[in-house]
Amino acid sequence: MVVLFSDGFITEPGELTGAVEAHELQELIDMALHSGIILNAISTRGITAEGIISTQDFSTPTPFSAFAINAQQQQQMRAQEQHDQEQDQLLGVGTMPDDTPMQEKPMAQLAAETGGAFFPRGNDMYPGLRTIAHRRHSYYVLTYTMPPHKPDGAYHYIKLEVTRPGLKISYRKGYYSPTEELTFENSNREDLMAALHGPGNMNEIPITLSYSSSQEDDSTCVVSFITNVNIRKLRFPEENNRRRNQISLVLAAFDETDHFINGLEKSIDFQLLENNYTDLLRHGLTSRVELKLPIGRYRIKAVVRENSQGKMGSIAEPVEIP
User: Fold this and answer.
1) Residue range 278-286: average pLDDT?
2) Are 120 and 43 in contact (CB under 8 A)?
3) % of the chain at pLDDT higher than 70
4) What is the C-alpha to C-alpha distance for residues 259 and 250, in angstroms, rounded to an integer?
5) HSE (side-chain half, CA atoms, 13 Å) at 55
6) 67-81, 105-119, 156-170: which range is least confident on average?
7) Disulfide-capable partner of 263 in 12, 75, 232, 252 (CB 3.0 to 4.6 Å)?
8) Are residues 125 and 191 both part of a single domain?
9) Which residue segment(s) compose the domain that 212 sits in?
């Protein structure tokens, strides 16, 4: 169980980095589901220092002033606790009211899809923490059997209902079945390595490359490479209301004698909802990696491969650092 404190962030279309962050958010949710992690979120929006009740009254230094204020504080805390419990019953767990600010919607999505609780803006984080701690002692482990099926890593929905009136339940809305170690993963890597060391560029997948650098010391620079992959012509087969595909990227630096100096490989396993898939089509897949390189001239090559059809793309650019 993890608790996230944040004032929110933007993943809506139209923002400069919204599309990228939306995919990263979905990837985080998928990782949590794979790992059995419950994500709770508490918004820090609206936290102020106004209205704090002091435990001492210096203007009236009587023996009863501190007690009177403490009693008032306790009464307010009880009233707040009653209000919070009523809010929990009204909203349910992991739900998102219609007036949730745009910045808080990703936090609500994290909680809803992993079976956690989301507590929107307010001036007191304690009720949310208390509720999360109390719910930790009220969990049940339910098991059931399924007919034999292919271990393909597919997403399976869960629907849980209770018959007791007024009872609210929190549970993850689905899970991923285990993935069989497929042979295409090995061929995927072999294809990437062959394209990385092969001459010329492959154009089945359009890819662009840009970079910026900063000097770390007298002889070394930290170089940030940004790639953008156009996925408009790639297939993302739909399965259980998710658009699925895996995209792998390799970026490597070769010196002037074509010797490998440094590189990085990464893969993204997409399990996208339809609206996130639409954003990906519109903006493409942008990825940023950093390499530490000695000052000098290099040939930078990036290779991308997708698993649905085995399409590939590559680009090579001469780079002088700094």
Assistant:
1) 88
2) yes
3) 69
4) 16
5) 2
6) 67-81
7) 252
8) no
9) 184-321
32 located within any domain:
yes
Give the residue carrying structure tokens 């993204």.
268
In a domain, 218, yes or no: yes
Residue 194 CB burial class (10 angstroms; 0-12, 13-18, ≥19):
exposed
Quick one: which of 178, 175, 26 has its CA closest to 115? Answer: 175
The answer to whether 246 and 307 have CB atoms below 8 angstroms apart is yes
d(CA 271, CA 269) in angstroms, rounded, equals 7
The C-alpha atoms of residue 288 and residue 297 are separated, in whole angstroms, by: 21
- How many domains are there within the chain? 2
- Does 158 fall in a domain? no
181 membership: H or E segment, kind and range: none
Report residue 266: phi and psi, to 5°.
-145, 150
Both tokens assigned to 158: 């869960």
> What does the pLDDT look like over 80-124, one tens digit per residue?
555 554 544 444 444 455 566 778 888 888 888 888 888 887 777
CA distances from 112 to 119, 153, 154 (A): 11, 21, 19
Q: From CA 87, how far away is CA 93, in angstroms rounded? A: 10
On whether residue 291 sits in a domain, the answer given is yes
Token readout for 245 is 């595909």
More confident residue, 4 or 186: 4
pTM: 0.44
